[in-house]
């Protein structure tokens, strides 16, 4: 199979994220949508085998079935629509180039989210280094930068813009580790064991991070509901 895939071939389209892929108030209290992971894994595994054999349409179908969840997770992790699009594209380019290294085709989704999570981690690390360097430069020049608002992300999705802003602010206020597990579970639909495998941490660590993240999000979203608004 050729590894010279055109970068625009599987560029993530500008599509609204479906309601059930947003970490809204309902799923944070009541759990995510039930996913038949075994059946989905089998279906994706068959597509992986076809893609390995040179069937580009099969990889296109893999993209179609998973890209919204990957994009939604990345958007919540990095807080930027444009960066999430770029990282989504890079994720699928890496997946295409290294598809032959996937030992268990049925585990494609977990493998894909691991790639995406690593992309997000690298991006956040580079952004921190850039911010620290810029702050140092401004301090030396005697100037002070205005604080950057990393909480707002200009999205036009199914949720009302005000509710979306509240949820996005709440998610972005979490630590990177907690944002990762929340995004992978509630947007990506990954199970606890799948998240543990994707992040390379014990299952208990994922459970602990999810519990703490949910508690923190409840605290942040509850005042909004008490003001008479609904999520």
**How is the main sheet built?**
none
CATH superfamily: RNA polymerase sigma factor, region 2, helix turn helix motif
**Averaged pLDDT:** 74
Structural category is mainly alpha
CATH class: Mainly Alpha
Provide a count of the helices.
9
Rg from alpha-carbon coordinates:
19 Å
Helix content: 55-70%
Q: How many discrete domains?
A: 1
CATH-level-2 architecture: Orthogonal Bundle
Distance between the termini: 47 Å
What is the beta-strand fraction?
A: under 5%
* Low-confidence parts: 1-34, 129-138, 141-159
- Silhouette: globular
H and E string: HHHHHHHHH
Annotated CATH topology = Rna Polymerase Sigma Factor, Chain: A
Structure in words:
By secondary structure, the protein is an all-alpha fold. Helices cover 66% and strands 0% of the residues. It has one domain: RNA polymerase sigma factor, region 2, helix turn helix motif (Rna Polymerase Sigma Factor, Chain: A), CATH 1.10.1740. It has helices at residues 25-30, 37-52, 56-78, 81-97, 108-141, 161-172, 176-187, 192-199, 203-226. Helix 3 crosses helix 5.
